Amino acid sequence: MNTRRHFLRSSTALIALPFLESLGFKAFAAPAVAVPPKRMIFLNFGWGVTNETWFPDVKKTGPDWELSEGLKSLERHRKDITVVQGCSNRFSNEAHWGSTFWLTGANRYAEPGQSFHNSISADQVAAAHLGMDTRFASLQLNTPDVQNSGHGPGLSLAWDARGKPVSGLENPVAVFHRLFSNDTTPLSERQAMLAEKRSILDAVREDARRVGTGLTKTDSDKLQEYLQGIRDIETRLGKDEQWLTVPKAKPPVDEPKPGLAGKDEIRVMYDLMVAALQTDSTRVLTYRQPVGTLLQSLGLKLAPHDMSHYSPGDRMAASQKRDATQSELLAGLIDKLKAVKETDGSALFDHVALAYGSNIRSIHYLDNCPTLLTGGGARLKLGQHLVLPKDTPLANIWLTLLHGIGVEAERHGDSSGVVKELQS
Hints:
The chain folds into 2 domains: 40-180 and 253-422, Alkaline Phosphatase, subunit A (3-Layer(aba) Sandwich); 183-246. Helix 4 (187-210) packs antiparallel against helix 5 and helix 6 (262-278) runs parallel beside helix 9 (314-339). Helix content is 32%, strand content 11%. A 7-stranded mixed sheet has the order 5-6-3-7-8-4-9, sandwiched between helices. It is α/β, with parallel strands linked by helices. The chain is globular.
């Protein structure tokens, strides 16, 4: 047997190397088991829920809670979901904006003289932490039915560090091709295009520096915001260069049919989310999903705004059917996350932190935002109904999730601290 050891020599000591397989210690080297990465999903819908039948009974909390009528489709996952009541964004004042401030907790009037201001969304904080090793730091899924779905300003659920909207992909076909279709442009041409973009950015930055002296504070702030935008573009170019020669993953799903809407759109978008995580194309996903076309796909001819202003009768029945369908689709997504196995034999579900809800409770009410959490990725206490003090910042939930995936942020949005009842 070859008992030869390997050493590092210095002027004062000999330091034995550990048993390294590449140096002939294969008999002693333990097989490496990759630890599956953490992931995050945020799912948002507009127009709220049916107040009377979506929320569980506030008198039945903890692990012995009962699913409400609107959540019945999730019964098979009851031990793996937590419903939280009592949260809101204290600065929210727009009854039809179901997603604009949902992940930010921002005060729209925080900037003097401006009628709209936003801040970074929780998914983008997560993307800065989880997105370094994937082709896409994050992916934003959207719907073309935004106007009828009660979402409000924005291009997706995501807002960048400057509080500017991040664009989203509006249909399943676009998402599929972004994830799995390789660019057929020759490599040399793609390299040349990236070099040209960098050259343009260098010229723009130099021009900005030349005009940066002697500006008023207002103009200086605008210039700094502009320069931050340039830095953001440079970051994206760096990401593109990093993956320029790496082929995209083979799709584990078929290419979707064009023109999907409503229930079909949501189901296929959920399938694509699972595929994106399964192939490790990204680890952070958001989806601003449809409501208007969902009603149409269910044979409901009510306008979604009219449905949201329900009273007992057809409008309330439509709202309840919407709730039940959304819960059914969510249950299907959880099924798929549980079915996909990681390299260590665990389920994909065990490494995903998923939040589902809206900034609107019901009708025009902005308190007690509907909030459901699932997945094992953020080390949450699942299988419980949690009723927090009235007007607990919704951002406390996001801060808790961020801590759960390893982001030790002191605060997020208008947060006042983590929710200790959620932490395992």
